[in-house]
């Protein structure tokens, strides 16, 4: 299999004069970008960073971030991107854990880098007016790397650090062949054509952002950098560059629909929608389908560890379904207490989703974390920690995380199907369901609602009673909030809701309890 450097060369050779990268006033064709990438690769080598060593990068989605990603692939250096909002202690941990030889940063991440003791012990490559030991401009002015071809598909391409919401972040090393297989699958499963154009908004420290970057190179496409999410600017980019495909988390689609001027915006060039990172509510699915009328609407379910678990290329066909295993993957659902991958859950029985580690996109184990490997890797299968079930047609439904499961009165209750019912109420803008400690029930089901129009607990309870939601899953409390807390990539942070870490909407009836 080709390594990723040679993969990029394919596009340079096929389409040297095609626009490849946009970031504000920066416009680069494939040939122009390739020259810059080789100079940056040469500059990294001149700093003494060798093949197989790690480069920690703490940048927003700017052209330099995308350039560094490709430069590392050419030089055999392991790209190790980190959230630009990372705190000093997170930097300390990741610099030390990865054994990074250098850190790249910009003004927005400079305070954390300067406050990190571990970062102060390595080379610090600074952008703009940030202070470091070397400037990024020095890399741009370096001699272009002469890559002798020693990089192979078996070299490690990057290490992605998981969010670490339930403990220490885990490094996920992925080889060139894993990354290329995942990008090829992304192209195939989203039916991308040559010269597709996408919005580069998903963070390049996240698997979704990396996949968009690689997929566009595979099809000689355009990657339009978005440093910080702004729905109005995203609409402007869609119009200005006639973008053809979007791959976002549900939260960003929600923001896009709510942006001023959305109805009038020129968005007809977008023919393909894809989403991942979190389930999409039935209500949002319907609104997007009406607004864009896409020829393809893909629900993609995956992870950093195994990029694709499953794909549904018609998200409206069976709302809530994550479809079936991707082209590089085998999936099973095993019982929640399973100790073996052979302990299958029955049809419609909620269990834990697991994936075959022999899949072409699957990682081989966590970086320096035998404890995490022991928990998640068993008998050749990756135990995802996600809950779900197969229906009678063989379609997968993802219901949440094992840790998110609400146990109330001895019943296992998943938040996702409750959220789907409530999301369809016309006055509900966003909804999240979580378990809150209760002396009698252990946990009680609480729905946290961000309103679009006036609605109260009694109205929502009636809505649930008139749906097909079984009674024991019906929320016992409704809390109206200003916003639903989410991670930087749009995942609902239920633990914050359970812990009371939210701002209530106090305009009308802030908290109400249903009648039993």
Walk me through what this model shows.
With 516 residues, the chain is an alpha/beta fold. The chain has a domain at 405-513: ANL, C-terminal domain (GMP Synthetase, Chain A, domain 3, 2-Layer Sandwich), CATH 3.30.300.30. Helix content is 29%, strand content 25%. The strands form six sheets. Strands 12, 13, 14, 15, 16, 17, 18, 19, 20 and 21 form a ten-stranded mixed β-sheet that branches. The protein has a five-stranded parallel β-sheet with strand order 4-3-5-6-7, sandwiched between helices. α2 packs across α3 and α7 (176-189) crosses α8 (207-218). It is globular and about 70 Å long. The N and C termini lie far apart (61 Å). The mean pLDDT is 93. One of its GO terms (molecular function) is medium-chain fatty acid-CoA ligase activity. One of its GO terms (biological process) is fatty acid metabolic process. Belongs to the ATP-dependent AMP-binding enzyme family. This is Feruloyl-CoA synthetase.
